[in-house]
Each structure stands twice: as C-alpha cells, then as structure tokens.
Specification:
Helix content is 34%, strand content 24%. The chain is of the alpha+beta class. The protein has two domains: 5-172 and 319-326, Ribosomal Protein S5, domain 2; 177-316, GHMP kinase, C-terminal domain (Alpha-Beta Plaits, 2-Layer Sandwich), CATH 3.30.70. The strands form four sheets. It has a six-stranded mixed β-sheet. Bound molecules: ligand DP6. Ligand DP6 binds next to helix 4.
C-alpha cells in the first residue's frame, strides 16, 4: 500500500562558517562551503499529505493558512522536486514551529529539512542522508545542514547531486550551546534569498571567498580538538566578513542594530575574562552566543535584562532530521 501522509521533524541550525552567495540560484549551489551546528531545543514538525482532489499545493504554518511568499516558495520547491524526481501529486502541508516566528530565527532550514524528509518517505524515494540533504537544499541552502546530526559541513559541489551536507562530529563529541539574544522582532527587510543575489556586488565578496577554505579547516579542526579559543576566533571573523560583504553590497544591507554591536563588545569582554563565549550573526540583528556547558548559565544570567535584548532562547547542539510516522 502506498503512503498517503508522512510526518517529519527537523531543527534549525546556526552557521559557524557562513553560506552567502550562490553559483546557481535555482539549484542553490553555494559559492563556498559552510559549517553549522543544529539547535536541539527548536524544531519544525511538518505533515505532508497527498491531496488527490487539489489542483495546487497548500500550506499552513502554525495553524494559519499561508498565501503570498511562503506559499509560492513552497509551491516552487515542490514543482522542482516533482520535476527532478519524476513524481506527481499535489500536497497539503501543515507545519508547526515550537519557536516564535517573530523571534527572527530563520525557520527555512528546519522547514525545508522536515519537508524533504516527509517527501522522501511519502514518495518512497529512499534517499540516503547525502541525497536527502541535497533535496532539502533545493528549498533553502541552509536546510541541507539540518538533515545530518550534530555539527555539519555543506560541501558546495558542482551539481544537484553532489551539493550536500554531512555530519563532521556528533552532538555528544562536544556539547556546545547557542544562546540567541533576540534584539528585534520586526520582519527582516531583505531576506537571505534576496541577499545571496547581492553578494557578488560587494567588492569584499572575492576576498571572503578566497579564504573560505582556510576558515573551514580552522573551524573543522577547532571542533575536532574541542578548542574553544580557536573556534571563537574563526566564527567571529567569518561572521564579521559576511556582514562586511552585506554592508558593502549594492544596495547595502545593514542587519546589525545598535544592541547587536553592544552585545558583540560585551561577548569579547567576557571572553577576555576567561568566559567561553563567542558571537555569530545570521541575516538579522540577533546575536547567537556560542558557549560551553561550563559557561552557558553565566552567559544567560549575564545577558538576561541586558539593554536591547527582548528575550533569550537557549539550545544545545542537536539531532538531524527524522521521520516520525508514515500512514
Ligand atoms: C546568513 O539558507 O536562508 O544564515 O538558500 O535562500 O534559503 P536560502 O538562504 P538561507 O541563507 C542562510 C544565510 C545565513 C548563513 C548560513 O546559514 O550559512
């Protein structure tokens, strides 16, 4: 009997070495490799059901029927998937996030990783982890890194099939934490998809790409050796370089708010006093404070109520995408 419905779950991830700019926008083949950690405390749970009577795919997120951008992005994704994998059938997708959408934590990584895992089961594609990661990547580049568990590296590749992420270390290898300092709640003005297209207009993007492999190996090595100092230096450098590209693209994008900058200064001050904390920022003003089991409670206590922070969301490193049920 063929399945009618599948439920899957995935976690968002925070990039240590960032993805910014594509060689191929349609297939989302990135200009450079990237490394991230999955965030266990946050997840998206998605049900995909084949809808025999429907003339188009439908989407609801957190109980709200979607129209506009979110719906057209999901439809475009499913069209691409149906074409590449020669499958047919419109889908009814219902998705729930356990974290507030308004917190500014990108949900596209967990959303497309969960959707890819559900589609894989529903259409019996039997994709292994590499191919499942590539399938998720078609929806959102960073979703490729939410498929395998723990700390993941996305290899840029040259074709759809060879651009995927793999786990480079399990969660239990090193229990790092991410404490997200939420500094703004308003919608982003320029989303990542649009931002990737602007990357090449910055005179700094070439310099960023030139040294990306070096930063990837320093980051990989820091994770293998569990060397926090080395990790802190390379992730802050990589985040600053990506934001320098954003700020100098045409038109320029300035994701940092005043509070983001104060928090970054404060993190460096804490680290100079021996507290294991390092910052990294994605395409938004929130500051992700990466830390160790020894330091995480101190960091939460320190930043709770800090000027400009509206809330803290804390998570340890987490699992990959998983199938929950098929009916
Ligand atoms: C700054 O994966 O959100 O978070 O492929 O268009 O969905 P799309 O972009 P997305 O870009 C992520 C950008 C980033 C850095 C990163 O996660 O590597």
């Amino acid at each position: 009997m063929t399945a009618n419905s599948a439920v899957a779950q995935a976690h968002p991830n925070i990039a240590f070495i960032k993805y910014w700019g594509n060689k191929d926008e349609i297939l989302r083949l990135p200009e450079n490799g990237s490394i991230s950690m999955n965030l266990q405390a946050l997840h998206t749970r998605t049900t995909a059901t084949i809808d025999h009577d429907a003339s188009a795919d439908t989407l609801s997120i957190n109980g709200e029927v979607q129209e506009g951008l979110a719906l057209s992005r999901a439809r475009q994704y499913l069209e691409k998937v149906r074409e590449i994998y020669s499958i047919s059938g419109k889908l009814r997708i219902t998705s729930e996030n356990n974290f507030p959408m308004a917190a500014g934590i990108a949900s596209s990584a967990s959303a497309f990783a969960a959707l890819a895992a559900a589609v894989n089961a529903l259409f019996e594609l039997e994709l292994n982890s590499d191919y499942l990661s590539a399938l998720a990547r078609l929806g959102s580049g960073s979703a490729s890194r939410s498929v395998p568990p723990g700390y993941c590296e996305w290899f840029p590749g040259k074709t759809h099939a060879d651009s995927y992420a793999r786990s480079i270390a399990d969660s239990d290898h090193w229990q790092l934490w991410d404490c997200v300092a939420v500094v703004a709640k308003e919608e982003k003005k320029i989303g990542s998809t649009q931002g990737h297209k602007l990357a090449s207009t910055s005179p700094l993007q070439d310099a960023r790409l030139k040294n990306a492999d070096e930063r990837l190996s320093i980051c990989r090595e820091a994770i293998f050796k569990k060397d926090f100092e080395q990790l802190a230096a390379v992730i802050e450098l990589d985040s600053d370089m990506m934001h320098a590209v954003m700020m100098t693209s045409r038109p320029p994008i300035m994701y940092w708010q005043g509070a983001s900058v104060s928090i970054m200064h404060e993190i460096r001050r804490l680290r100079s006093r021996g507290i294991e904390a390092a910052y990294t920022l994605d395409a938004g003003p929130n500051v992700h404070i990466i830390s160790t089991p020894d330091a995480i409670r101190k960091i939460e206590d320190h930043f709770r109520g800090f000027n400009g922070i509206s809330s803290l969301i804390t998570s340890p490193v987490g699992d990959g995408a998983r199938l929950i049920s098929v009916n």
